[in-house]
Structure formats: structure tokens, C-alpha cells
């Protein structure tokens, strides 16, 4: 067995180092048993689940590591014809917002739920950057369970980062906006435009989210954030890049100042102020969508108000930490002592010390204030600077062995450095223009420092060319030794920003394999073929249909007229793992359904023309799958 593996590894190593001048340097980087390190034999499981943001496709994808195999795409903010998400009547409400259904978004960051600063494998949170929303995905079903829209926000980028016990999911505004929907001149930015930091309470048993309070900050464009941990448990840190408060030509005007700020928020104190009635309740509309597992139905409610906390009324709650040149990433090391800001235009990486921050706050020796919020002195709170790390530092992850890894967007490399003495220890190229990095648990108290993944913005020549549009790319590095080693390249679904990964055993055995049909609470369930029926009510026709290998019942439906609203409620009667049935009907803009065993899902169809419309199962479910079909007769009115 071992010999075969070694042979395979050797063969693969030869294959990648095939003589080609252009490939030489890259090939050199993958020698040393790389193939055996990523080889997961057929039938074997990967060591880690890796959740990756889908960027502008609005979804989340799941890969196995170290193989890089794509396991699943979880639709979150975007409709997904493959399994009917956003097309079935049961899931449409998940995409509700105050602007009606927004069936798309720009998904950047993911965070796995934590207990005591360690991953607990319960939920995965995802942000929507465009129409501000935060989603919760249930890791027993890999389904989106909840989506909460956020008022007083735009460009919900600094999100969904969580506190150590998942007390809160936190979201910061990238695009400062006037609160409410005021019609104000854009030139009144300084006065009217604000950044908010939203604290969403997470129910510890159900995961249910509710907006607890929003801290109103000056318009300054919050970019990223992370919670403190251990000693810094009570604090949250946000980077900002527009303390110039520019509102035109940001490229130039938001890059003028030598330093922007990292905003330090004491969320424990904020919580107390909120409880003590220091906030102001104001009207605010936002959608709150939940998927009820029992009823197998998404419902959407409009929330009506929000609680705003103004730092002016809440002393010692917010401080500003000067940070060189438009910081992007804002990352806290596993001990909770070091805060790494990544000024993307800076030629160094500043590392702040939490204990020094505490001392400086005590002394109250401030540099001044930013619209009433005290500014700490850079030198007072600095642990030190990593000198000449590379160009364009963006994001930092940690291995739990005292090392940090920072992505360098401009010089396309990962740089490993020591938290203690801030010395650069190693650097490896990325192909190309790396954004986020991800180490399993790399932003928790207990990183698993075996692998690092770089998520790259530009692919260029890495794969067979596919016309002008290329897939984005991830690269896997072995970081278990002193030197980082590139061991795998693989394309991703959509643009990967942040990712998360956890040991497979944390969630593998909790997976729901199918739904118990006796507990099916869908209002349109059909319990057995003898209960199928077609019910007309005005121009609404309800078809109570069943699916089991290999027939749909009823399979001949007549008495339907042009313009009727036909609802196919399809119950999958199977009680076995991995036997879904699909359902589609000709000429239907509502895509299709994919119905899991024991589930009932509804597809709406409004025939516009008379004729015979075939319907069929779309998922190859048995040798007689092709026969799993029927006809709907649509007659003229
Ligand atoms: S961002 Cu994408 S590379 Cu939206 Cu977290 Cu930095
Ligand atoms: Cu059921 Cu194919």
C-alpha cells in the first residue's frame, strides 16, 4: 500500500516537473512528495471540510482538504437552479428584503461558530456585501437556515465575524451612509454619513439571530474586523480606510492620510449600555427570514426598529488606534494579545499589543479625538512593526505555534513571520495576487497549523485556458515544517475571499441523511400514493404528488387551463440516504425541484399556452429513471 502511494507520488512529481522552460520555477516549488500529501485515495475521506466564500456568485462552496475536491455548493444569497433554492415556494422567502426578493449577492466572509474560542461545528455564518445581510447555515444539513437583513448599512463587508462564544455575529458598514433613508446631498458626507457596527445576538441553543444594537461611528468605511479572545474577549476590532471622509475619487482622496484607524469597541460595555437604556430606539425596516425545519418552509417577517448606541452617550466604549495607510485585514492572534493591522499601502505590518492598549486607555493620554472618539497614541500601543514584509499586506492567519502568515497582494506571496520578534521567517510565491489566507481554525484560539490555503484573485496561466473568463484559484501549502511548501492548485467556484476549515470529524457524523417522513410538517405533504389528489380553488390548482422509484403520481393531469396557477407539491416518499428525486415541467421559468427523501417541496407553474406539457424527474435515480415522467394537459380557457 505504502509503496504504491510512493510510486504514485513519484509519478505525479515527474509529471509536474515535465521539461518546459516556463513551468520550471513552479515545478520546483511542488517537488518533495507534494502529490502524496494531497492524494486522498478513492473511497477515502478528506481530513478537513473547507468552506469557501463564493464572492459575486453569492454562494458558499465546500471542498475537502487536502485533496481540493469540491463536495458541495450551498446556495445562500443566490438562487440555485440545481436544487431549486429560491425557485421552490418553500425557499423563495429566504431571499426577501425590504426591496423585495434580491436573488443574488456578493459573499465575502465566513465564520464557523465557536465555543470558548474553538470551533464547535454547529453553524457557519456568511455575509452579503451588496444588500446587507448575514446568513446562518446549519451544519447538520448544509442548508441556509436564516438570513437577517441589516438596516443602516451598505456594503456589509466587515462581517460576519463572531465573538468567542458566538454571543454575537458582528457586521460593519463598508460604505458609510446616512441613517434612515434621508435625501441628503452627498457633499454632506461628514455630517450625515455614518458607519455602523451591528451586533447580532445569537441564541445559544437554536442559533436564531436578532439585531441587538448598532453602534454609530463617524463615516469612515469599516473594512474588516475580528473579535478579541482570551484577555481581549470583551473587545472587537475593526479596520477602516476612509478616515479622510472622502466621497469622490476614493482611490486618491481616501489614501491621503498617513494613518487611518483601527476601531476598538468594548462590546461588553456596549451590551451594558444597551441594557441600561443608553441607546435610542429608532424605526428601521429590515427583513428577517428563517427556514423552519419542521414545516419545511421559509417565512419572512419585517422587523420594525433598531437600537442605536452613540459613543458620545457611552463613555469608554470606543477608541481609535492609528494604523498605517488604509488597513484592510484586522486579525487577532490565538492568545488574544496581538492585533495585526494590514495597511495595504504600507511597507510594513504594524502589530498592536492589547495590554498596551489597556494601559494607554487607563492613562487617558490621548492624541486627540476623531469626532469625539479618543485616539490612542500609535507608539503607546504598538508591539512593533514587521519591516519589509513584501508589498500590499492584506490578511493574516496564525498557526498556533507563534507564527503569523500575511498575504501580499502586490508582490503575490505569503510571508511567514514570528509574532514574538517580528522577523520574517519564510516567503513563498502565490499565483497570483493573493487575497485572503486560511489556516483551519487560523482565526480561533486553537489553529490547526498543518495547511494554509491562499485564495488568489488572478489565475492567468495556471490552468488550461477557457476564453477570456477564467476561474479564480486556490493554492494549498503544507506549513507543518519550517518552510512553506506549495502542494496543490485548484480552481474555485466564484471569487473566493475568506474561507474556514475544520477537522472533518467535527461535523461528519452529525449529518442528516434523510428526513423522517412521519415527522414531515409541510402543509402540503402527501403521506403515501393513495393520498395523491388534484384540488381546484378558483384559478389555483394544487397537485399533491408523490415521488418514489420510479414513478410520479399522479402522472396524467387534465382539467388545467391557460393562466391557472398550478402548484406541484411533490413529496419524496423514499426513506434512504442519497435518493433525491427531481421535478421539472416544460416551459417553466421556475427552474426545478430537488426533493430529499422524506421532504415535500412545491413548484409553481403558470401555463401561458395550451398544449401537452411533459414533466419528469431530473435526477437519475434508478434504472427506470427515464420512465419517471408524466403529462399535464393545458386546455384553452
Ligand atoms: S476582502 Cu476579499 S481579499 Cu472582501 Cu475580506 Cu480582502
Ligand atoms: Cu426519480 Cu429520476
TrEMBL record:
Gene3D superfamilies xref list: Cupredoxins - blue copper proteins (2.60.40.420), YVTN repeat-like/Quinoprotein amine dehydrogenase (2.130.10.10)
GO CC annotations on file: cell envelope
Keywords: Copper, Metal-binding, Signal
Pfam families: nos_propeller (PF18764)
Protein's UniProt keywords contain Iron: no
Region forming the signal peptide: 1-22
Subcellular location, principal: other
The organism's place on the tree of life at top rank: Bacteria
GO molecular function: metal ion binding
Coiled-coil regions listed: none
Keyword Metal-binding on entry: yes
Cellular localisation: Cell envelope
Designated name of the protein: Nitrous oxide reductase
Lineage: Bacteria, Pseudomonadati, Bacteroidota, Chitinophagia, Chitinophagales
Amino acid at each position: 500500500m505504502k509503496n504504491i502511494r510512493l510510486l504514485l507520488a513519484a509519478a505525479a512529481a515527474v509529471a509536474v516537473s515535465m521539461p518546459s522552460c516556463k513551468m520550471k520555477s513552479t515545478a520546483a516549488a511542488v517537488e518533495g512528495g507534494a502529490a502524496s500529501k494531497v492524494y486522498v485515495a478513492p473511497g477515502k475521506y478528506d481530513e478537513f471540510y473547507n468552506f469557501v466564500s463564493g464572492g459575486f456568485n453569492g454562494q458558499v462552496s465546500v471542498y475537502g482538504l487536502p485533496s481540493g475536491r469540491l463536495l458541495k455548493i450551498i446556495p445562500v444569497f443566490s438562487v440555485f437552479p440545481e436544487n431549486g433554492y429560491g425557485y421552490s415556494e418553500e425557499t423563495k422567502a429566504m431571499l426577501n428584503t425590504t426591496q423585495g426578493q434580491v436573488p443574488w449577492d456578493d459573499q465575502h466572509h465566513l465564520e464557523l461558530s465557536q465555543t470558548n474560542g474553538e470551533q464547535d461545528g454547529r453553524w457557519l455564518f456568511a455575509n452579503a456585501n451588496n444588500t446587507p445581510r448575514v446568513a446562518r447555515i446549519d451544519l447538520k444539513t448544509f442548508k441556509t437556515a436564516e438570513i437577517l437583513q441589516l438596516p443602516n448599512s451598505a456594503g456589509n463587508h466587515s462581517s460576519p465575524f463572531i465573538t468567542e462564544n458566538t454571543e454575537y455575529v458582528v457586521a460593519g458598514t463598508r460604505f458609510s451612509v446616512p441613517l434612515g433613508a434621508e435625501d441628503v446631498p452627498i457633499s454632506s458626507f461628514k455630517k450625515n454619513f455614518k458607519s455602523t457596527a451591528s451586533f447580532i445576538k445569537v441564541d445559544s441553543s437554536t442559533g436564531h439571530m436578532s439585531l441587538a444594537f448598532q453602534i454609530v461611528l463617524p463615516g469612515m468605511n469599516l473594512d474588516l474586523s475580528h473579535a478579541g479572545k482570551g484577555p481581549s474577549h470583551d473587545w472587537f476590532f475593526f479596520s477602516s480606510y476612509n478616515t479622510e471622509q472622502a466621497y469622490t475619487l476614493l482611490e486618491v482622496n481616501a489614501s491621503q492620510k498617513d494613518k487611518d484607524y483601527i476601531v476598538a469597541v468594548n462590546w461588553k460595555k456596549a451590551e451594558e449600555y444597551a441594557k441600561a437604556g443608553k441607546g435610542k430606539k429608532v424605526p428601521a425596516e429590515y427583513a428577517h427570514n428563517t427556514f423552519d425545519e419542521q414545516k419545511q418552509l421559509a417565512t419572512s417577517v419585517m422587523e420594525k426598529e433598531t437600537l442605536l448606541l452613540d459613543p458620545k452617550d457611552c463613555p469608554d466604549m470606543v477608541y481609535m488606534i492609528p494604523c498605517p495607510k488604509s488597513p484592510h485585514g484586522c486579525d487577532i492572534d490565538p492568545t488574544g494579545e496581538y492585533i495585526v493591522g494590514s495597511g495595504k499601502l504600507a511597507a510594513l505590518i504594524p502589530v498592536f499589543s492589547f495590554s498596551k492598549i489597556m494601559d494607554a486607555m487607563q492613562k487617558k493620554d490621548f492624541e486627540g479625538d476623531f469626532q469625539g472618539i479618543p485616539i490612542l497614541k500609535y507608539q503607546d500601543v504598538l508591539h512593533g512593526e514587521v519591516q519589509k514584509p513584501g508589498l500590499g499586506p492584506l490578511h493574516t492567519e496564525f498557526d498556533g505555534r507563534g507564527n503569523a502568515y500575511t498575504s501580499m497582494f502586490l508582490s503575490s506571496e505569503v510571508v511567514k513571520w514570528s509574532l514574538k520578534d517580528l522577523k520574517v521567517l519564510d516567503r513563498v510565491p502565490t499565483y497570483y495576487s493573493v487575497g485572503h489566507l486560511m489556516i483551519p481554525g487560523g482565526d480561533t484560539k486553537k489553529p490547526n497549523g498543518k495547511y494554509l490555503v491562499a485564495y488568489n484573485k488572478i489565475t492567468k496561466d495556471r490552468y488550461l485556458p477557457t476564453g477570456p473568463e477564467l476561474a479564480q484559484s486556490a493554492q494549498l501549502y503544507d506549513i507543518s515544517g519550517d518552510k512553506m511548501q506549495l502542494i496543490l492548485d485548484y480552481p474555485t467556484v466564484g471569487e473566493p475571499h475568506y474561507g474556514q476549515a475544520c477537522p472533518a470529524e467535527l461535523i461528519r457524523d452529525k449529518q442528516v441523511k434523510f428526513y423522517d417522513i412521519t415527522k414531515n410538517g409541510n402543509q402540503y405533504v402527501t403521506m403515501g400514493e393513495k393520498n395523491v389528489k388534484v384540488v381546484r380553488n378558483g384559478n389555483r390548482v394544487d397537485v399533491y404528488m408523490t415521488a418514489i422509484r420510479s414513478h410520479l403520481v399522479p402522472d396524467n393531469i387534465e382539467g388545467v387551463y391557460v393562466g391557472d396557477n398550478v402548484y406541484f407539491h411533490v413529496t419524496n416518499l423514499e426513506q434512504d440516504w442519497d435518493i433525491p428525486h427531481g421535478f421539472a415541467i416544460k416551459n417553466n421559468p421556475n427552474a426545478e425541484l430537488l426533493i430529499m427523501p422524506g421532504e415535500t417541496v412545491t413548484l409553481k407553474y403558470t401555463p401561458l399556452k395550451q398544449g401537452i406539457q411533459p414533466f419528469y424527474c431530473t435526477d437519475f435515480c434508478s434504472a427506470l429513471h427515464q420512465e419517471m415522467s408524466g403529462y399535464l394537459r393545458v386546455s384553452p380557457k
